[in-house]
TrEMBL record:
Its cofactor is pyridoxal 5'-phosphate. PANTHER family: 3,4-DIHYDROXYPHENYLACETALDEHYDE SYNTHASE (PTHR11999:SF60), GROUP II PYRIDOXAL-5-PHOSPHATE DECARBOXYLASE (PTHR11999). One of its GO terms (cellular component) is cytoplasm. Transmembrane segments: none annotated. The keyword Lyase applies. The keyword Lyase applies. Belongs to the group II decarboxylase family. It comes from Leptosia nina. GO terms for molecular function: aromatic-L-amino-acid decarboxylase activity; pyridoxal phosphate binding. This is Uncharacterized protein. Residues 187-212 are annotated as: Disordered. It comes from the Eukaryota. The lineage of its organism: Eukaryota, Metazoa, Ecdysozoa, Arthropoda, Hexapoda. One of its GO terms (biological process) is catecholamine metabolic process. Keywords: Lyase, Pyridoxal phosphate.
Amino acid sequence: MDSEQFRKHGKEVIDFIADFYDNVREHEITPSIEPGHVAKSFPKDAPEKPDNWQTVFEDFSRTILPGVTSWNSPQFHGYYPSGASYASILGSILTEGLGTVGVTWISNPVCTELEMVTLNWLGKLLGLPEEFLNCSSGPGGGVIQGHASEAVFVCLSAAKDKMIRKFMSFNSSLNEDEIRSKLVAYSSDQSNSSVEKGLSSRFREDSASEGR
């Protein structure tokens, strides 16, 4: 796909999304498909030659769209959709279009700094003490997570790490495995499944010795 095709088909996709949202109330909330729907509709092996955009979009309309749960329907109350406004879609296009990765400041300086500014805004809106903000002299700050389950995992990992460091400062003869085996977390029986998954994670570091 060259730049002219990208311009043409990009407009088609924008029009499709706008039409989709204009008629979102008419869409089926839960798809009426059977498990294995996609596997039965696509070839078992990846194609050796690319399809043109029209064919790809026809496959999308025929196979993918009928199996989509309408999270953005006003009649959907199963979870908590939060990222599908027109503004957020345009923001995603800009982000993906730049094609950068913000893993560190040097890999994409403005990505890191924009995250810091945005989290400061959020912290102030929540009324958090300055110690929680990036602009403080303390260990404040944070990272925007991709989804709720990821955020829960990071919070639980941070809590475990904090307690391990705390106990090791009291008794240097203890090792991490001993402390981890004694940690207990309490949760409501109504908690999201991501809480249990996050608590069950373990980490082991092996040496990268030759021959392994």
